[in-house]
Structure formats: structure tokens, C-alpha cells
């Protein structure tokens, strides 16, 4: 367990750390603690000496092939799932600081004699796509949750995300052809839950962390041909001192791109129909519209976010002004009232304008880059 | 005057054209005329059969070297100057349709035996940077202004912009080294005014256009080393039937990038100081901010638009949320209240967020791409 000492060192001693007193004022020279205000329903972010603290493990991945995870979707989802466990009213958030780079590098490796910390399955010596042991755990992400304690803040919760491959891409020789091993949903789930318990027991073995609840979310990566990022499918929380997660809850997330390809059916026929009406009118109204696509995110069966990308082959100032106006009026007319909507109007190189409503019931607003 | 026939053909006969009756409704199948609503203080745009009409001369340039004009600045400025002549209350706008591609291609050429329409100076056979005749007229832009006439619209004004080089880049042999000829402000002005009169007399010689007032704006391109686009310096209007512009008015436009380089002094020390305070706090608050620059546009000595670009080396969801909040609070604290402000937060590949107030006295709003 060589990497444990690294982990301990990284955990440090919060009481003696330079995380000390202060509030949300922004001008005191002596301040060490500070939070940035949150967006609607979001967490306030805990800064350190006025500076945003980044996680030392961000970007670490198990392999360099085509397995790379959509980190933005993974992080956004982790924070969303965390809200079910750590209330945004009581907790402030900071990017994970408990796991360090050396530890996570070991954990993302295969189990072997020289890396007994490795969480991926050992190399069984086979290279056949169905006979080898695939790399399933591709990435680990951590977020920390603090509560106010007197004039300071103390760590009170940790969320861990396990980024799990649905397809593991690999080569048989260095720079050789790329092969792939599929990982079934059942296998991914079983592996994810077992690995989550291993991580929980390792973290709760540390004196400084044993009383900290740990939430683990299981994130399923899509294959590289997919147009959409991955989604969470399960999460569970280990209470203080517990070495395992006894209850797993489902997460119902779906992402869909419209128009659908290969005759795939829409998650919601109504959302699809609204988008099609919007798209048809936009394409009729202006020449040079080369693409209109939507990405829709569904949480618990409801449309939660709709993002529409319009690509044009024009650049003119008047064209963009006029087009953005039309897009806004058609969005009001056709698009749903159940989710925030983001519409970007881009030419080949630049975003020209954004038309958006930030909440389901909000008003559309428009920003045209470069002004009048 | 071979190209005149082309011009005449392009002008056509408005009464007999398929530009016919109708209003701003958007659902009638029979509609041929329609306008899109305007932004604050802007023109409504005249569509044709529901479709935005692009100008056939857009993008035409006299040379292919490094002379290319910032078309967006040229068009934005032309519309701004046009407002002094054609009120946004009385006129609707359409991209120029009176000049066609063949005509403007001839006009942008040098005067020669085979191109007597050429508006650039004839080739004097010399190649020395101070002895040759430079290409001064680089680009021509047109906007048309219509007024309502019964149930239809009729052409009632034309704005022409002449994009004039301050430096003409050229080669002595095909694919050879690039040389340049500087054109003084006085020479640019004299050439621009003379050329404007030539264009006015050519257009007013057409029966269909002789009663249409023509505004001509003179746009000065900056050299390629400049960080900012060009600006207008003069404009004048030829009344109906007039063959020349008898009075020229000055346009006072300045664009400046902050921080200034090479010890250049700021247009406004106060605006510079506000930006510096904003920049310093942003850079202190977050790691990985790799650049903060501002582009300020001054019209008639007043700050009219401030655009700030923040480049970061981070991508995380939480980082962008938190950073955008901080940027917005610092913008409110430091930046001026006399102009609209646009602040983009971008990583290497993408715009991550935009924080902006659309009017001088408006509220700041923020849009984070990708949503929650």
C-alpha cells in the first residue's frame, strides 16, 4: 500500500492548514477563506486565500486510446447527483483535494504484483477482444463539500465519480491497429459497485476521513461513435465509518441528439416535433444555414436542458442581427417551456450570437458578439 | 462603359419585380414582403419572400495580398453612419442589391484601356514603393434603404462604403516577396472623395436611381500589424439627381486595445484604469488565466463599446461557473457605466461563458455554455 502514504500526505491536517477564518467579503487582506456566490440552485465555491483551487487529479486517465471521457458531462453530472446527498444550502463545494496524482495514477492502473493498488482487472495475458480483461475504470473525479464551522470551514462530505468504459479501445502492439472490447451494462455496474466499495474502505481507513460521508456516482462513458457524452446510472453513499455502500440508487439520465440518426426513435416525440418545426422555419427563412442540431438532456424522464447549434455560412453584421432576431422569435413560438434553452449561432470559426433562456420559465435573451 | 449594362440589369425594375405586397406577418403563404424586427435603435430588415437577401458584392476585394478589410467593422460602421441620414423609424434596410458582382469587379480594378470603369489609379509601370500607384480602393459595400409605399416597399436611399487602404501590400512578381506602399491620410481622403463622386454620378445616371439619395462613407483600413479593425473618417450625401457630394462631414471613430503596446497612450486614462483594476483582480482570483485584453470603441470621443476577452487554460464545469460569477461581480464593481460591455471567457477551443450588459445602463447577465 505504498501510495497510501502519498494519500495521507495529501489529506493533510485541516485544522493546521492555512485554510483559516473568514467570510465572503472580498477586500480584506487577511482573508483566507472566501466563497464565490452560486448560480440558481448551485453550490457556492470555497476558495483558498482568494484563489480557486483545482483538483490535482483532473484529467488523469487510465489509457491514452479512444477511451477519453467527456469530463464536462462527468463533472456536471457529479455535482447534480451530489445535490441529492449534500444540500446546496448547507454545504459549499471545492474541487477534490483528498486524492493526489500519484495515488490516482496507481488506482487507474491494472492490479499487478508491482501495483497492488490497481483497481482495473489484472492483465490475464490474452489479447482477444472477448478473452482479455478490459480496462473498465477510465477516470476518477472528486469533489469536496465543506460546512461552516465557527469562522472557518471543515470538510464534511466527499463525492467520487468513477468514469466507466462501455467500450475499451486498445492495441496489441505499440502503435498497432486499434481493437475494442465491449463491456456490458451488467458488468459495468457490478465492477463499478465493487470498485466504489474498495475506494470507500481505503478512504475511511484514514483517520482524517473516517467520519466523512462519501458519495460515489457511476458514470458510463459512451462509445466513440456516439454523438453524446456519457451519463450517470447509479449512485450510493457510505456513511461515516462505513467501509461500504449498502444501498445503490438509480440515476435516470438520457442525452439525445436531434435529428436522430439511423432511424433511432426520439425520447420524446413531442420535443422532437417542436424542434423540427423550429428547424424547418429557420432553414426556410435564411440562406446559408448549413446545420441545425439539438442536444437534449433528460433527467428522470423530463427534458432538463435543450442546446441547439446553428451553423451558418454567413458572417455579415446585418445578417447576424437579423437572423438572431428571427431565431429568438421562432424559439418563443416553437420550443418547449419545460427546460432552459441555449441556441448558438456560429460560422465556421466563431460563435456569432447566443439566444438563451436560463430557466424553464425565463425569458429569451440574445447576445450578439461584437455589439452595435 | 460596358459594365453599365450589367448595372442596369441588376437594378431591374422595382415595380415589376417580385417584391410585392405584404406586411410583417409571418404565416401568410402569399406574403412576398416581410421585415424582421430590429434590435434597440436598429433597422428592421427587409426580406424577400421570407428569405434574407444577401448582397452579390459582399467579399469582393481589389487584391488578394494582406489588404483584406475587416468587413464586420466596415458593415457595422456603415449602418451606424447611415442612421445619421436614413432614420431607423422611416426606413427599413436590405443588403445592397443595386451593384452586381461584374460591375464592382471592374470598379475595383485599375483604370486601363480595357477597363475604363476601373476606379483605382492606372498602373504607371513602376514598382518602387513610393513611385508606383498604389491600390487605394480595396472594397465596396452597399446597403439599401426602403420606405413603405402602400402595401409594398420602394427603394428610397442607398449607402455606399469605400474601404480604403492605409497600406497597399503588393508583390513585384507572382508569389514574390511582399512590399508595401503607404497611403497618407490626406491622399486617402482626396482619393476617397473623388471616387465617391464618380460612383454617385454613375449611379444617378440610371433612370431608376436618379432620384435616390446616396450616402457615401469613407472607411480607412488599418495596416496588418494593427490589433484593431478600421474606422470611418468621413461621409457625405448626394441628394436626388445630384452628380456629386457637396458637403463632407467628419466621423470621429477610434478603436483601442488594452493593455496598450509600445507605450502608446490610452484614449481615456480613466477607462484604462478601470480595466486595469478589473484585470488585476481577475488574474489574482483564479489560476490559469492566460490573457485579459479589451477592445474599446470610441464614437465622438465617448466610449461606445467595451469588449473584453479572457483566455483561460481551464475547462472544468465548476471552474467556469465560479469564474463567471467572479467576473460578473468584478465587472459590476470596476467597469464603466457609459457603454455596453461584453466579456467572453474562452479556453483554447471554445467560448465557455459570456458576461454582458447590452446597454450602457443595463444589468449584467451571464450565460454559461452547456447549462447545469
UniProtKB/TrEMBL annotation, chains A, B:
<protein>
    <recommendedName>
        <fullName>Sex pheromone biosynthesis protein</fullName>
    </recommendedName>
</protein>
<dbReference type="Pfam" id="PF07537">
    <property type="entry name" value="CamS"/>
</dbReference>
<dbReference type="InterPro" id="IPR011426">
    <property type="entry name" value="CamS"/>
</dbReference>
Amino acid at each position: 500500500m505504498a501510495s497510501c502514504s502519498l494519500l495521507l500526505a495529501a489529506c493533510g491536517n485541516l485544522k493546521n492548514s492555512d485554510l483559516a477564518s473568514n467570510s465572503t467579503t472580498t477586500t480584506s487582506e487577511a482573508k483566507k477563506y472566501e466563497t464565490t456566490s452560486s448560480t440558481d440552485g448551485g453550490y457556492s465555491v470555497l476558495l483558498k486565500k482568494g484563489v480557486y483551487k483545482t483538483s490535482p487529479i483532473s484529467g488523469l486517465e487510465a489509457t491514452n486510446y479512444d477511451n477519453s471521457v467527456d469530463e464536462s458531462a462527468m463533472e456536471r453530472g457529479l455535482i447534480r447527483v451530489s445535490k441529492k446527498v449534500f444540500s446546496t444550502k448547507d454545504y459549499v463545494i471545492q474541487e477534490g483535494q483528498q486524492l493526489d496524482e500519484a495515488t490516482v495514477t496507481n488506482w487507474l492502473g491494472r492490479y499487478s504484483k508491482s501495483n497492488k493498488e490497481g483497481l482495473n482487472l489484472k492483465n490475464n495475458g490474452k489479447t482477444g477482444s472477448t478473452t482479455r480483461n478490459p480496462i473498465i475504470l477510465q477516470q476518477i473525479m472528486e469533489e469536496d463539500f465543506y460546512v461552516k464551522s465557527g469562522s472557518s470551514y471543515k470538510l464534511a462530505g466527499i463525492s467520487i465519480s468513477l468514469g466507466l468504459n462501455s467500450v475499451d479501445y486498445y492495441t496489441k502492439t505499440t502503435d498497432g491497429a486499434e481493437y475494442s472490447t465491449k463491456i456490458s451494462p451488467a458488468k459495468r455496474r457490478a465492477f463499478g459497485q465493487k470498485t466504489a466499495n474498495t475506494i470507500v474502505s481505503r478512504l475511511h481507513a484514514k483517520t482524517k476521513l473516517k467520519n466523512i460521508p462519501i458519495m460515489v456516482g457511476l458514470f458510463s462513458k459512451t462509445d466513440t461513435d456516439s454523438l453524446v457524452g456519457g451519463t450517470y446510472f447509479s449512485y450510493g453513499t457510505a456513511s461515516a465509518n462505513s467501509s461500504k455502500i449498502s444501498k445503490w440508487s438509480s440515476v435516470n439520465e438520457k442525452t439525445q441528439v436531434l435529428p436522430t440518426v439511423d432511424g433511432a426513435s426520439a425520447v420524446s416525440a413531442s420535443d422532437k416535433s417542436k424542434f423540427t418545426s423550429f428547424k424547418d422555419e429557420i432553414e426556410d427563412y435564411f440562406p446559408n444555414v448549413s446545420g441545425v442540431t439539438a442536444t437534449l438532456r433528460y433527467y428522470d424522464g423530463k427534458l432538463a436542458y435543450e442546446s441547439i447549434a446553428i451553423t451558418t455560412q454567413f458572417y455579415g453584421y446585418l445578417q447576424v442581427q437579423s437572423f438572431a432576431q428571427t431565431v429568438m422569435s421562432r424559439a418563443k413560438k416553437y420550443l418547449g417551456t419545460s427546460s432552459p434553452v441555449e441556441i448558438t449561432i456560429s460560422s465556421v470559426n466563431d460563435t456569432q450570437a447566443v439566444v438563451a433562456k436560463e430557466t424553464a420559465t425565463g425569458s429569451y435573451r440574445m447576445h450578439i458578439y461584437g455589439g452595435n
